[in-house]
């Protein structure tokens, strides 16, 4: 394969997943600039090893590279954010967040409430331990199959399912522990 064909194949298979790569990196690093750095490094690494990629499903392959690069980056730059799963449960729970999904899309007050709830949900997800956050993001936001997530995270499907269940439970607990909205608003 010529270098030109290789570049075209990479552009065709890898570049359409740039937004997914950025979103995963953003959720893992919790910072836009750091996510940019991770995605850039991941795509450079992906291009360097692209000859070893076989098949047409580049998305899981790319996201696994993004994941590895993000964890490497976190260990180098913020080692305290990479917590082993047993430590995550020993150290405590995620920050509390809010619940309530009913909104009126055209009502300005309801729109503001929805924006607040979305911000609180995003914060609750961001507060999950990294290993749970990544599985939740890959499944719920990227809608990947359990098998693809297992391939990306290099863990068995049963572990994907148990981490997803724990992530959902932690998220639910965080959202239900929030004080009622009236208490927040002082009403």
In round numbers, the mean pLDDT is 82
**Proportion of β residues?**
under 5%
Distance between the termini: 68 Å
In helices, the fraction of residues equals over 70%
- Global morphology: globular
Please tell me how large the radius of gyration is: 19 Å
Could you list the spans in which at least 5 consecutive residues all have pLDDT below 50? 84-105
Return the string of H and E elements.
HHHHHHHHHH
Number of strands: 0
* Secondary structure tally, helices: 10
Largest sheet features = none
Secondary-structure-based class equals mainly alpha
What features would you describe in this structure?
It contains 10 helices and no strands. The chain is mainly α and 187 residues long. Helix 2 (18-29) crosses helix 3, helix 3 crosses helix 4 and helix 7 crosses helix 9 (157-176). The longest helix has 20 residues, at 58-77. The radius of gyration is 19 Å and the shape is globular. The model is unreliable at 84-105 (pLDDT under 50).
